[in-house]
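User: For documentation purposes, I need each entry recorded in a consistent format: the amino acid sequence on its own, followed directly by the corresponding structure tokens. There are two entries in this batch. Please keep commentary to a minimum and don't merge the entries.

Assistant: Recorded as requested. Entry 1:
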Amino acid sequence: MQFPKRVDKLGSAIFERNDWRKQVYLKASIKNQSPNLIDLSLGSSDLLPPKCALEAISKALNNPESSSYCLHAGTNAFREAVASWAKRRFEVDVDPGTEVLLLIGSQEGTAHLPLAVMNPGQTGLILDPSYPSHRGGLVLADAHIEKLVLKAKSDWKPDFGDLKTSQWEALKLMVFGYPHNPTALVGEQIWLEEAMEQCCKHEVVLAHDNPYVDLAIDGEAPALLQCLGWKKWGIEFFSFSKGWCMGGFRLGFAIGAEKIIKALSVCKSVIDFNQSSALQAGAISALASAGQWPEQILGIYEERRDRTLKALRLMGWDVPLPSMAMYLWMPVPDWAIDQEWNDEIFASELLIETGIAITPGQGFGSGGEGWLRLALVRPVEELEEAVARMTPWWNEHR
């Protein structure tokens, strides 16, 4: 069977490749009595969600409607809670009826958005590197993809001067995302404001993927909702996966211009229903009663960042200090480059020899080649154990 070209264009997703490598390692480790797997490849928190959220889900599960299909009208209470949160968090007025949409995680929203707002062959712009769903959604929509390449020498700052007027005029959609995954850079509000101004001028939809909005260790996270023009050409994606540690529950939402929310809602209506009302109850409780939860867990991530960085630098790895929680963005060391190891080979060899799984930067686009992402999603003692296990391997090869 010959599959559509868009499937070939998607390629093998980095998380799929990593998962395959981890399974191979786990099978071999049983036979060879290798060390246990320390999985630092996914931004999936090991921390528990707020107790109030879990209690709300547990209580709501006893309601028969929690196991029924949930249509858009069944998300009213959730959307009202989001609007109230947006007012508290950003001091903006949001219409829960027309400007809020429940999502099965922000990843789902960013992947479906191009189908909702673009025709085949129209142009979408993404950052490079960026989260895989940003490119994947454009591929599935048969869009033409432009890339705004972020560079280490510029501290991963987007340079809109790289875009010609003709490129702006050809755009239909621009996908942004700060705090930035994978580079762990918080970013600046002025970057979003500049992007929003250009998008309003050229009538381009600006999508801002913002699941890390409450996880800035240093600085203040940008937000599209604080930009003029978002009610005309903007949409911002949020998630419960990171700040509220609810990744497995697959809960997210979008706030945006009425026409964009409507288009995405119509698209979603033929693809999926909404999350169970019981899960929504947990999300509502998190927003209403645990608004400070992300702030409370920041100290945990900051300690993990600082102690892991210290151990890596003592080993000889010059890793930059990230300004947002959850990740380290690490250059492939010179000794590995001398051996003609790229980031994918480095990550593979590290896993095979030490049982430590991290993510190759090229999985986030060609702009990530030569870099590696380590997720700070294990207790600090286990992170230090990972570095201790890595050290003899490092010394042997350098």
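Entry 2:
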Amino acid sequence: MTETRPNSATSPLSEHEPESAFFTTEDYQRFHERAARYDRDNAFFADDFAELEKIGYLRAALPVEHGGRGLSLAELAREQRRLAYWAPATALAVNMHLYWTGPATVLTRTGEVDLGWLLQAVAGGAVLAAGHGERGNDLGIDDSITRAVPQPDGSYLVTGRKTFTSLSPVWTKLGLHARDDSDPERPRIVHGFVDRESAGVSVEKTWDALGVRATSSEDTVLENVVLPAGQVVGVGGIGAPYPPYVAGILQWYLPLVANVYFGIARRALDLAIQTSRTRPSIALPGQTHAHKPAVQRQVAQAEILLDASWSLLEKAAGDVAAGVDHGAWATPRLFAAKEFTVTTARTVVDLAVQVVGAGAVSRSNELERLYRDVRTGSLHPPNTDAVLDIVGRIALGLLP
């Protein structure tokens, strides 16, 4: 399969961003050239992952003393949208490792929570993944179908099935949540990490999805798996405020995942712009489709949407990195940024397809893959319904 691509991003929004702290143009080109094959074969991005490990990208947010670069959320978000521009599934999957590392660094540095053991594990090569998805659970991390049975030594035995476990071929520690019903009147949600080599852990191959196929987000089955006491990172009552680390991962996850979808949309529009500049127009002899008023309007609409999304993402990530206190609106603002961005990204990709025309849906055109990849954005928790419910109730004063 061959895919056309522009020589570089044309957006003025990307021209003024700092260069990547990790990747060269040649690196991006390698990732990009593999993306079509991974998608076609429904294969894990193994070569990309090996390179990311080698250059230390999985430690990007770790402090220097742990072998990292100490990147802030804003800096890492820019890296993620650049990577997603060239290899969306690669960026999305590694995102599910990175968002655990950033808040662990921040909370350990401030002394609010000591997650030094987790930073040391990542520095030593641990790969983290998210075990939050569950079939039939429409409350996300606010409740769980997976069960955690407390043990005398402070550990838990965890039983359940987790869906959409990105990085399935390579993760070594699975961050998850499970419900402790040992006190029926006060059920609790337990958050922590289980180890892949623990007895009772198995991976069931279920992943054959519409888009972002290279993430290899298989199901993880847990049967009385030990969650060690030392790897419990938070316990809270149902309906109570999230433990600090759980709140922290939300603050990093939401902007990071949104930036992945921004990168997809930026890439799609750049492809459409290049195509319109080179595609002859019979209706306008001697000119290209770029000279057609309809195309100009579509491109203008897409650029305005991306500009707004870019500004929102920069502000949201920058505020978290700077510690700006938005009070009760802190997390809802991030929900809103994610929702606006993924919805915008889908609209922009649709506009890009309209600009290019029927050729955009050919498997030989990169836009066909981007059209599929962008579809999953609104499905990442919290999904559209959950975001609108939370933001609406807070705005109406129906939530504390």
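Summary note for entry 2:
The mean pLDDT is 93.
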